[in-house]
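Please check this protein record:
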Amino acid sequence: MKFIETLKNVWKIEELRNRIILTLGLLLVYRFGAQVVLPGIDASKLAEFAGKFDGGGLGGLLNAFTGGAFANASVFALGIMPYISASIVVQLMQIAIPYLQKLQKEGESGRKKINQITRWLTIGICLVQAPTYLIGLPAMGVPVEAFILGQTPMFFISSTIILVTGCVFAMWLGEKITDKGIGNGISILILVGIIANLPQSFAQELASRFENQGGMIMILIELAIWFIIILASVMLVMAVRQIPVQYARRTASGGYEKNIFGARQFIPLKLNASGVMPIIFAQAIMFVPALIGGASFMKDSDVGQWMQVNFSDMFGLWYNVLFAVLIIIFTYFYTAITVPTNKMADDLKRSGGFIPGIKPGTDTAELLDRIMSQITLPGSIFLAAIAIFPAIAVKVIGIQQGWALFYGGTSLIILVGVAIDTMQQINSYLLNRHYDGLMKTGKNRKAVA
């Protein structure tokens, strides 16, 4: 009843209601586009090709991020991932390129220019990925007869233009959701793509379990484990270390001036400040060992064959050992470049604040850096454990590979992170209208005239 009452309160707020309706409408457009097959390809001949991505693997992960569009050879086959790649590249380039550093300091105008650079880079990445995807379709299992007009230059040129346009349109949809809807648009597009594969994956797991005795008990056990993993992911996303900050003197105005002595606040340092990026970075280079093992100078050697066998299976032991180590390394790397402890210390000093017992300036920066290093270690280990849990679910519990992808890794962290961010935005609307939020209990507060 409390949940239903909260939903009624959400619907009462006109602005929030309009934003939710707009968001759902744009998501419907995105899901419709994921089912529209590229011109020149017979959709009836893609069933076998699409079935190859049901068992998980790297292709299954990519197909999950695009909501099945990758396996459908649709106009949204590239999904929103080129934009994500461009955003990561631009973010890393801001460390080394002075021009981007200058734009970053220019506020809103600089942010708009950086966004424009990201968009152009997205198109550049699409122009590389689109032809690669089209050329690789036969190698990935699309039969020759599926190409109605053949693999002609006209097909490649027109399909490349459509794929690039589809990615740009998806990027536009994400930006519109961010500006006019609710939540972070790009993240929500990925979220919807992942959720679109969940019912089919669960149905396959359900059918597999009921073929054996005790199927219902195993399903209940799996759901209980899944619920525990979700709770652990929520804890990882929301966990913070609060650093107390003391303000010796602050002035507040409200028709009169009032001095506040000894006002205390906190600097929240997140346990996992890097989010899902370490998993994405690590996943992006996990194909390298198998590629090296298959190179001409190593493929006939025992080491080369061992690398091909052990690093081609994303649910294998050695694959996940290396995967976990890379996640820990990239967590430290990404945290170091995204959490500017020196800037935080300078801003704190300029605002008249200090950490009790610590001198403002360099000493404060060193303390913040040391604390970040300390909390990043357990955070990175926790993140790595969640990232490799799908492999544990497959090898130990015997879960189907497609369903196991929802037991951790990139998919689950994104689901949890985006859900929490969206709930917090809805929560702020409810609290501003004097209602209880989604993340708070108790009776509704009456609106104040």
Summary: The longest strand covers residues 240-253. The radius of gyration is 25 Å.
